[in-house]
Write a structure and sequence with these properties.
Blueprint (H helix, E strand, L loop, with lengths): L1 E12 L38 H13 L3 E2 L2 E2 L2 E4 L9 E4 L6 E9 L5 E13 L3 E5 L2 E5 L6 E7 L6 H18 L11 E11 L9 E3 L5 H20 L3 H4 L3 E6 L4 E7 L9 E2 L6 E2 L2 H7 L6 H12 L3 H8 L2 H11 L5 H15 L13 H12 L5 H13 L4 H8 L7 H14 L1 H8 L5 H12 L6 H11 L3
Parallel strand pairs: 12-13
Antiparallel strand pairs: 1-10, 1-11, 2-6, 3-16, 4-5, 4-15, 6-7, 7-10, 8-9, 11-12, 13-14
Helix pairs in contact: 1-5, 2-3, 6-7, 8-9, 8-10, 10-11, 11-12, 13-15, 13-16, 15-16
Bound molecules: adenosine-5'-diphosphate, magnesium ion (MG) and zinc ion (ZN).
Magnesium ion binds next to loops.
Length: 475
């Protein structure tokens, strides 16, 4: 029996206004090589100055993962020569990172939990981008010097599933505390996966393979499964020692395989040494107080939803899984509706209607509107069935709820006068049934309700009809 061992390194691009060591903007989609200056171009004589906002966001992350924050941390040089790094080194934090010994909880579907330890989170500068264009390669340095936080887990995950839960939770936390966009496609949340296997019960770590830069949760899951299978087969075939070597591999999504990118022999010697151009990074006590204030985290919100709204833990996890979803739900609740209805209308009805590029953040029906639609069910203006029609209509037409109800003619008739007239007519037309009912055939009550609903073409408020019929039939 084998056990899978996974450790994850995540590079999060911080959404600061300016770069890590200069005042160039971090915004993208600018003309190539325009967001640059002597510092991020590494021109001789230019000196780096640390951006305080980076310390702020790093402390926030540290708080969110319940970590130790080193109020004094240091920068180091990691030497490597690559065209997208004009300085031929990267500034990072090897020896004393700003954040150490954190933890993060993952939740399984059966409501059990597991805590994954986080070794460290350190600040580093991003490189530029190489653009390969036919025979020519170009370099865009707009991204060079953008701040990254590299968050390194302990090798605590035991399956692809656990790895994905960890990544989704970390992703969610980054979005909750808003320290980065964490967009995998755009590269602001980049994952390196370290995978090894070992005989179950063995404590020691076996040779790990690192799979780099896979840009979706689905592909990460697949890459892990493929790599685990490769290692297991090598073991079973007795060629583990020969075939499984410490190396960097790439995931090829078209071929559905991992493939060697560079082996240990080609591994760079980074020649780390303390960065001489920078002072130590100091977070003063006052800064600590200021930076430690963070928004409510997913776990806290989840616990609060269970307590305040009587939700099941499972539902609370679903609705707090992303900050967008949680805020949507909370905005719906401002309409004074029941949590149960809000949950169903958000997670079943609205989400069931979101397709393609339309998601919860750009949905044509926003939280306030959906909340109000639910309110119209709760106050008896429309039936639940009619509300689905209204929602269908509003996914494609812009109108407010009440005018959509009006346009679609779905308003329930709660006007007692009109309904009484219908009830009278139905009673008059079914004299025999009335006699049967009065002599004890209670079941017939449903028949009368049905007839009235039919006569009103479904627009009658069922509760009102019930009340009227009860009085008229003498019960
Ligand atoms: P490096 O910085 O060279 O990539 P680290 O020692 O910092 O190396 O480890 C990087 C990541 O690899 C960490 O997330 C760690 O948990 C994970 N890791 C280390 N050894 C193993 C192993 N044998 N199997 C799986 N993951 C591992
Ligand atoms: Mg690594
Ligand atoms: Zn610059």
């Amino acid at each position: 029996m084998f056990e899978v061992v996974i450790g994850l390194e995540v590079h999060v691009q911080l959404n600061t206004k300016t770069k890590l060591f200069c005042s160039c903007p971090t915004s993208f989609n600018h003309k190539q090589n325009t967001n640059t200056c002597p510092t991020c171009l590494a021109l001789p004589g230019a000196l780096p100055v640390l951006n305080k906002e980076v310390l702020h966001k790093s402390v926030m992350l540290g708080k969110a993962i319940d970590a130790k924050i080193n109020q004094t941390s240091y920068f180091d040089r990691k030497s490597y020569f690559y065209p997208d790094s004009p300085s031929a080194y990267q500034i990072t934090q090897l020896y004393t990172p700003i954040v150490e010994h954190g933890k993060l909880r993952i939740d399984f579907e059966d409501a059990t939990h597991k805590t994954i330890r986080i070794n460290r989170a350190h600040i580093e500068a991003d490189a530029g981008k190489n653009i390969h264009d036919g025979d020519i390669s170009k370099v865009d340095l707009n991204r060079a010097g953008t701040p990254l936080l590299e968050i390194v887990s302990e090798p605590d995950m035991r399956s692809a599933e656990e790895a994905i839960l960890y990544l989704k939770k970390l992703h969610s936390i980054i979005r909750y505390i808003d320290i980065g966009d964490a967009n995998m496609q755009e590269g602001s949340f980049r994952v390196d996966v370290n995978v090894s296997i070992r005989p179950k019960g063995d404590e020691k770590l076996y040779t790990r393979v690192e799979i780099k830069n896979i840009n979706s949760f689905r592909f990460i899951q697949k890459a892990i499964e493929l790599e685990v299978a490769r290692q297991r087969e090598a073991w079973e075939d007795g060629v583990y020692g020969k075939e499984i070597v410490q190396e960097t591999r790439l995931f090829d999504q078209t071929k559905q395989e991992t493939r060697s990118m560079r082996g240990k022999e080609e591994a760079a010697d980074y020649r780390y040494f303390p960065e001489p151009d920078l002072l130590k990074a100091v977070v003063t006590d006052e800064m600590m107080r200021e930076f430690s204030v963070i928004p409510e985290l997913p776990d806290e919100k989840m616990t609060r939803f269970v307590k305040d709204y009587g939700m099941s833990e499972y539902n609370a996890i679903v609705v707090t899984s992303s900050v967008e979803m949680a805020h949507f739900f909370e905005d719906m609740m401002k309409e004074g509706i029941s949590a149960k209805n809000a949950l169903t209308w958000l997670t079943v009805e609205l989400q069931g209607r979101l397709k393609g590029d339309v998601n919860i953040t750009n949905s044509p029906v926003n939280a306030k509107k959906l909340g109000f639609l639910v309110k119209r069910i709760e106050d008896g203006t429309i039936s639940g069935k009619a509300a689905k029609e209204v929602l269908d209509y509003l996914m494609n037409n812009s109108a407010d709820i009440d005018s959509a109800i009006e346009t679609l003619g779905l308003k329930q008739v709660s006007d007692t006068g009109a309904l009484e007239a219908i009830c009278d007519a139905i009673i008059a037309a079914n004299g025999d049934k009335v006699t049967e009912y009065k002599s004890g055939k209670d079941k017939l009550f449903g028949f009368f309700v049905g007839q009235v609903m039919k006569e009103s073409k479904g627009s009658a408020n069922p509760q009102t009809v019930n009340d009227i019929l009860k009085t008229k039939l003498g019960q």
